[in-house]
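Quick sanity check, DNA-binding protein:
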Amino acid sequence: MAIDLKALNHNQLNELITKAQERQQELRKEKVVTLREKILEMIKSEGFSFEDIFGSKAKATRRTGGTVAPKYRNPANPEQTWTGRGKRPRWFTEALQSGKKEKDLEI
């Protein structure tokens, strides 16, 4: 099936490209389904379940960040601290602009 690309106008060429991309996606999806079926057959033939091999979806856990100890303290107001993560607090930026060094603000 040879297509004479030089005979196509701009709109026809764009339509051909779109159809080709859609077909490419369809083939990819078909291949994924076939592969998934093969994998499930292999798992069953060995006497295991999908969950035995890959675990259950419910087990997927998200890592949560714990609390981090403060690393810097505001010399003007010791109650204000910063862990060194995220956006710099205003007092930290102002202290640096006034000539202090990060090392001076460490706890």
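Posting the structure with no commentary besides this: The chain has a mean pLDDT of 89.
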